[in-house]
């Protein structure tokens, strides 16, 4: 696995390295894999470009995006509580990852674990006042520094989201692409 490093100052390359990789794939006779390789490589690079400002914005709050997502999910609920099982499902990551993230949030006093009121085997996550205050400040910062001013036309962004949603739906992420999720 390649370790991620701090990005170097941005200097545009004289050619598109993904286009060069595509050319090399074709030259090596891997033509059936060209569309997939190009897509995966392009999306991976786009993900790097989108995540970098998110991580830089969250760093002063001592939050990773995973920690932010858990806090934001809890803050969106009516009473700041959600069963752990529901959090795992909505975050679409392995339960071990959510447990590890929640452990750190609990350690930092941002989330509490409570026993489920009707299921003695289940755990409920509850955001603390400190967690709610932090996630609100972090959300304002993300909205100002990472989620607005993206260098992509609004129509192109919407089309990209639609394309990815179709791919996610086919992969089984969701059944009905309703524009508004049901309240928590």
The CATH homologous superfamily is termed: Winged helix-like DNA-binding domain superfamily/Winged helix DNA-binding domain
How many domains? 1
The Rg value, from CA coordinates, equals 20 Å
Low-confidence stretches: none
CATH architecture: Orthogonal Bundle
Shape: globular
DSSP helical segment count: 7
CATH class: Mainly Alpha
Helix/sheet category: mainly alpha
Q: What is the H/E string? A: HHHEHHEEHH
Strand percent estimate: 5-15%
Q: Based on DSSP secondary structure assignment, what is the total number of beta strands?
A: 3
| Sheet with most strands | 3 strands, antiparallel
The CATH topology name reads Arc Repressor Mutant, subunit A
User: How far apart are the first and last residues' alpha carbons, in Å?
Assistant: 37 Å
Helix content: 55-70%
Description of the molecule:
By secondary structure, the chain is mainly alpha-helical. The protein has one domain: Orthogonal Bundle (Arc Repressor Mutant, subunit A), CATH 1.10.10.10. It has helices at about 15-25, 35-60, 65-75, 85-90, 95-105, 130-145, 155-170; strands spanning about 80-85, 110-115, 125. The protein has a three-stranded antiparallel beta sheet. The two termini are about 35 Å apart.
Name some characteristics of this structure:
184 residues, mainly alpha, Arc Repressor Mutant, subunit A, 7% strand, transcription, DNA binding
């Amino acid at each position: 696995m390649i370790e991620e490093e701090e990005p170097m100052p941005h200097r545009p390359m004289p050619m598109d390295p993904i286009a060069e990789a595509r050319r090399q794939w074709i030259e090596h006779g891997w033509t059936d894999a060209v569309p997939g390789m190009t897509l995966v490589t392009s999306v991976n690079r786009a993900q790097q470009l989108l995540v970098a400002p998110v991580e830089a914005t969250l760093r002063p709050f001592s939050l990773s995006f995973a920690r932010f997502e858990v806090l934001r999910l809890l803050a969106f609920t009516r009473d700041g509580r959600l069963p752990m099982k529901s959090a795992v499902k909505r975050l679409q990551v392995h339960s071990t990852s959510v447990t590890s993230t929640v452990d750190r949030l609990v350690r930092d006093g941002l989330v509490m674990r409570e026993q489920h009121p009707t299921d003695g085997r289940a755990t409920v996550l509850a955001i603390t006042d400190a967690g709610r205050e932090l996630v609100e400040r972090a959300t304002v910062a993300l909205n100002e520094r990472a989620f607005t001013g993206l260098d992509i036309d609004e129509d192109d962004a919407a089309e990209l989201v639609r394309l990815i949603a179709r791919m996610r739906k086919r992969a089984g992420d969701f059944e009905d692409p309703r524009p508004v999720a049901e309240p928590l």
